[in-house]
Structures are given as C-alpha cells and as structure tokens.
TrEMBL record, chains A, B:
Organism name: Citroniella saccharovorans
PROSITE patterns listed in its UniProt record: HOMOSER_DHGENASE
Family matches, as PANTHER family: HOMOSERINE DEHYDROGENASE
Catalytic reaction(s) noted: L-homoserine + NADP(+) = L-aspartate 4-semialdehyde + NADPH + H(+)
Residues the record lists as binding L-homoserine: 184
Record's keyword terms, sorted: Amino-acid biosynthesis, Methionine biosynthesis, NADP, Oxidoreductase, Sodium, Threonine biosynthesis
Enzyme class, UniProt record, top EC level: oxidoreductase
Protein name: Homoserine dehydrogenase
EC id: 1.1.1.3
Pfam families: Homoserine_dh, NAD_binding_3
Family membership noted in the UniProt record: Belongs to the homoserine dehydrogenase family.
Pathway where this protein functions: Amino-acid biosynthesis; L-threonine biosynthesis; L-threonine from L-aspartate: step 3/5; Amino-acid biosynthesis; L-methionine biosynthesis via de novo pathway; L-homoserine from L-aspartate: step 3/3
Length: 311, 311
C-alpha cells in the first residue's frame, strides 16, 4: 500500500490530491497497490474546507509517521523542509517534489542521500510544469548524451516580454501580468531569472552529472531589459526570450537572448515553456507544453508516482 | 546477461549495433547486465564487411537459439517475421522493433501475446524515429488521458509539400526528394499516407486502448494533391501538411490538412516530425524531433532497451 504524506494543500498539492482521486482506479492498477492519503501538512487549517481529518500543522505528524512510505511535497518552503526530507530519504521513504527552490538549492545532498538509501527522489514538476523533461534525461544520456540544452522556462517573463513587443513599458507589462495571474505579488523570482536558474540548474545537473552552486550561475533577468532592444529585434524578425542554457563543458547561465521569431523557442506564448536538447545521436529533441498551473504540475507529480511504482 | 538476436543489419540495425558498442559501459551500468550480440540476420551476407562471424541468413539460427533473450528487429519484412516474433514473445523473449509495417499490421496479436507471457514488446523507433512518443503515453493516460492526438509524421511528404510551396510541380518535387535521399525508389508508402497511417495507428491504439484495422483507417496521401490548393493556403499564411489524427471516440484518419504556417506543426521542415497530445489535465504537450535516420531511430531502440532492462 502506498501511504502518502502530502506536504502542502494549495494549487499544486490540492490538484495532485484531485488527480489521484479522479484516476485512482487506473493508478492502483498500474502500481499494483492501494493508494491512501495519510496526512496533509499546511500552515493554516482554517483555510481548507475538505479533508479536515487529514490536515495537520505539525510536520512531525508526517515525518515521524513510520507508515508513510511516500512524501509528496508542493509547499514552496525551502530551508525548513530540506533536512526532514533528507532524513526521510535516508530511512527509505520515497519523495516527490514540485518545489524547484528546495530541489535546486539542496540537489546534491538529496540526490546523494537517495542514491545511498535507494529511496526514489523525483521532481519532474519542479521543471516545466506538465512537460516531461527530466523523465527523458536518463535515456538521452544512455544513447550518447546531450551536447547542450536551451530552455524557455518562465511564463511570466514570456508574457511580459511579449507585452513590451506590443508597445507596453516594462512596468505596465508587469502590472498586466499580475492582473492576469501570470505574476505573483512578489515577482522577483520570475523577472530576476531565479526561477529559470533553478530549472536549468536542476536539468543541467542531471544531464551532465555535475552539481552547480546556485550563486555561481550567471543569472540575468528581464527587470532591466532595454525596451528598445526588444523593438529593434522585432524589426528584424527576432524576439527576445529569457533563456536558460547548459552544456556538457559545464557552462550554464540565464539571460535574455535574441531568437528567431518563428523558431520553436521564439514563438512560445504566455505560459508555454519548451526545452531543446541538442543530442549527440538523435538531432534536436524539443518538448513543449504548459510550464505551470495546478493540474498541469500535478500531472507531473502523478507521472513521478508512476515512475516509482509502475510495474 | 542480455543476449541479442539482431534482425537486419542495415541503416537502423547497423546504427543500433554501433550505439550499443559506443555506449556499452553506460548501458551495462544502467541495465546491470552484460550485453552480447549473439547473431545477426540478413539476406545477403556478402554485402557486409564486419561481424562476419555473427551473420546468418537462416532465421531459425535466431529463433531457435534458446540463449537469446532479446530480439531487436529492424528489417522492413512484414508477414514472414510476424509469426516467429509472436512465438518468441510466447516463450518470454523480449522484442524491440523499429518496423512500423509489421507492428501496425500485427499490433493486436503481438500486444496480447506479450501481455500473456509478460515478455516486453517495445517499438518506439517505429513511430517518429528519435522522438520519445510512445514512452510518454502510459503516463499521459494514467493522469487523466488524452482527448486527441495530431501528428506530422512523414518527412518525405513534408519535403515534397514545401517544394511545391517553392514553386515545383509534384513530380519535380518527388524527383528532388529522391535525389536528396528523402524518398525511396518506391515512395508509395510515404506519399500515399501509408507510413503516416501506420504511425498514427500504433500511437492511437496505445493511447485509446483500441485496436484499429489498417484497411479501415481512412488514408489520403499527397499523390493527388492540388498544387493550387497549396499555393492558395500559402497566400493566407497557411500551409498544407500530411497529418495523422486520432481521438478518444475512435476517430482516426490520415489526410493533407491546412495549418497555420507559424504553428508548431505548420512550421516543421524536411525530416522534422512532431506530435501534439491534447491532454485532459496537462494542456497540449508537443514533442518534436527527427522523424527518421539511422542513428536517430537506433537511439529509440536503445531507449526501449533501457525501458526494459533499466533498474
Ligand atoms: N503553481 C504552479 O503553477 C507551480 C508550478 C510548478 C511548481 N510549483 C511549485 O509547487 C510548490 C507549491 O506551489 P503552489 O502554487 O501550489 O503554492 P500554494 O498554492 O501557495 O500552496 C502552498 C501550500 O503549501 C502550504 N505551505 C507553504 N509553506 C508551508 C510550510 N512552511 N509548512 C507547511 N505548509 C506550508 C500552504 O499552506 P497554507 O496555505 O496553509 O499556508 C499551501 O497549502 C512551490 O514550490 C512552487 O514553486 C508551482
Ligand atoms: N531508415 C530509417 O530512417 C527508419 C526510421 C524508422 C523506422 N525504420 C524502419 O526500420 C526498418 C529497417 O529500415 P532500414 O532503413 O534500416 O532498412 P535497410 O537499410 O534496408 O536495412 C534492412 C536490413 O534488414 C535486412 N532484411 C530485410 N528483409 C529481410 C528479411 N526478410 N530477412 C532477413 N533480413 C532482412 C537487410 O538485409 P540484406 O540487406 O542482406 O537484404 C538489411 O540488413 C524498417 O522497418 C523501417 O521502416 C527505418
């Protein structure tokens, strides 16, 4: 029996709960096991009006419950959850996370721990929402590997940049992004490139078997982008996108770059994300889809569950 | 130990042999097993100047060798290999094939046999060369499924259609496709839509858990395409592509359709293929890459091997 301790019950974790309930029959068939939500960690129980009997605000209720054999995490909390998660992995508890901030910062420790204990650690949802990026990496590597990877991985930046192309100032575009729900109240992780940095960090580490320190990744966001540069690009059929880049020589960075408007990365709109793998043997492989969203990201958490327990 | 009987030693099978040799160390690590090529089936031994001691023209040398536990098939032969492959699956021998003609025609029999015997049957290379299409289907289904799928899956047709856009007649475009190696001496499987039909048949069967009869799939190729239709489309920013379509109501067909020129399917060039999954919960997921080529397709055969034997 898969006994889940769910950390968080917001946009992503709540959708994960829904997806599992909606597809319980198929999932139990694929995994060959019953699935139970044992407990759910939140900070403010009053906010929720379902699963009342499962909710807790004490993380010990989950981390000290020896029956829980799978932790699914989608909180956004970073430092206070890293050690308990590491301890859980040590004990052999499997972990699925959508939390790019936590995974990017603690990647090396968590991966080494999971390798030692043979517990599974999966985080497809942390990179590119619904897009199956990480699950394709092992195969890309085994048949000769990848030379470099380039991704457009932040929907907020996409949206703002295309609004500037439409004539808005950066400030107006950011305001509109907030109104439309693309940007959060504090948009710095998006517009300063941090979000993209975390995603390209996670992807490159797995692809190139090398751990990077976040603070050593050159990260330039779009906050100070020159609006004229965008308009000039447009005139010659180009467009500026915030890209994440990584290669097998260990080069890794995030910055706005000029792309052909009608290339696959250049033509992305709004919340669309895409990543291009430049492989040694299979040409370019591109994967594109919705980079965020509750159900979209929850879909990747379910994929991880199948990767771990699928027969 | 993985003991391989290789059927065929041409463009794809030869590249598979090379990829395994080049990446042997990594593959043996991932699978936890040594890998050996035990025998290789061809028709004309004189053509080959390597692996002489492994070559055979008698299929019994492979199918009656009880040490062989994996058959990797890339011949193009259809009816004469279907039954021996089915018998091998029955005995528990795993099978990987790149042969879309054989897989499409015998899909139901082969899948049912492999389910019964619990032997693995994989054929990623049969649909879309290097593109990881089939390996993503199980997950797409488990998290709510797919409403419909549309693919541009034939590079020869892509090439010919874009040459007609450039002003060539169909005949001239076909000639050029042959010159450039896009089209074979007998191009009918490509230009009559048969190749696309096989790929969308295989994909839809897996996605929608329903077997189709090849002859019941409405298949219109590009042989009789109206050149004016293509030029008219172009004038309004559209383009004609040969698409394969399947949906969860069991609708399935192949025909030339008008697409936006700057959409992801509309902008494909030459040998590029792409497929769009319209999912229930994760929006549209697009996968794009090289649809054919020896090393590209062999890459998918290696992926299948990892899927079967990866720890
Ligand atoms: N939303 C997306 O589209 C998306 C896409 C990819 C990845 N992600 C990642 O998924 C994670 C969750 O995102 P979200 O959009 O679902 O956020 P959210 O809607 O704000 O939900 C966060 C949930 O976690 C709980 N939580 C937060 N900090 C906690 C803590 N220290 N201890 C206990 N519970 C805590 C919250 O509980 P209270 O409300 O009770 O405080 C809430 O239930 C983040 O790491 C995010 O980066 C999100
Ligand atoms: N080429 C691609 O880009 C590509 C992409 C995706 C899928 N595929 C599929 O992969 C398969 C192989 O394609 P390919 O391009 O590699 O063809 P190929 O270069 O012509 O090679 C075919 C090989 O199979 C052998 N063979 C053919 N029929 C045989 C039979 N009845 N008995 C024994 N050996 C036989 C041939 O041996 P002899 O030469 O000695 O006759 C040759 O070694 C086909 O099913 C094709 O549809 C190809």
């Amino acid at each position: 029996m898969i006994k889940i301790g769910l950390l968080g019950f917001g946009t992503v974790a709540g959708s994960f709960y829904d997806l599992v309930e909606e597809n319980r029959e198929g999932l139990e068939k694929i995994t060959g096991q019953k699935i139970e939500f044992k407990k759910i960690l939140v900070r403010n129980i009053g906010k929720y009006n379902r699963c009342k009997n499962l909710l807790t605000i004490n993380k010990e209720d989950i981390f000290e419950d020896r029956e829980i054999n799978l932790i699914v995490e989608a909180t956004g909390e970073v430092d206070r959850l890293a050690s308990p998660i590491e301890e859980a992995l040590k004990r052999g508890v499997n972990v699925i996370s959508a939390n790019k901030a936590l995974i990017s910062k603690y990647l090396e420790r968590l991966i080494l721990t999971s390798k030692k204990s043979k517990a599974s650690l999966k985080f497809e949802g942390a990179v590119g929402g619904a897009i199956p990026i990480l699950s394709n990496i092992e195969k890309l590597k085994a048949a000769g590997g990848v030379k470099k990877v380039i991704g457009v991985l932040n929907g907020t930046s996409n949206f703002i940049l295309s609004q500037i192309e439409n004539g808005l100032s950066f400030e107006k575009a950011l305001e509109l992004a907030k109104e439309k729900g693309y940007a959060e109240a504090d948009p710095s992780a998006d517009i300063d490139g941090i979000d993209t940095m975390r995603k390209i960090n996670i992807t490159s580490s797995l692809l190139f078997d090398k751990f990077f320190k976040e603070e050593e990744i050159e990260t330039i966001g779009i906050r100070k982008i020159n609006e004229d540069r965008i308009k000039d690009a447009l005139k010659s059929g180009k467009t500026i996108k915030l890209i994440g880049y990584g290669d097998k020589n260990g080069k890794i960075y995030v910055r706005p770059e000029e792309l052909e408007k009608n290339s696959i990365l250049g033509s992305l709109k709004g919340g669309e994300n895409a990543i291009v793998f430049f492989t040694e043997n299979a040409g370019e492989i591109v994967i594109k889809g919705m980079g965020a969203g509750g159900r979209e990201t929850a879909y990747s958490l379910v994929s991880d569950l199948i990767d771990i327990y699928g027969k």
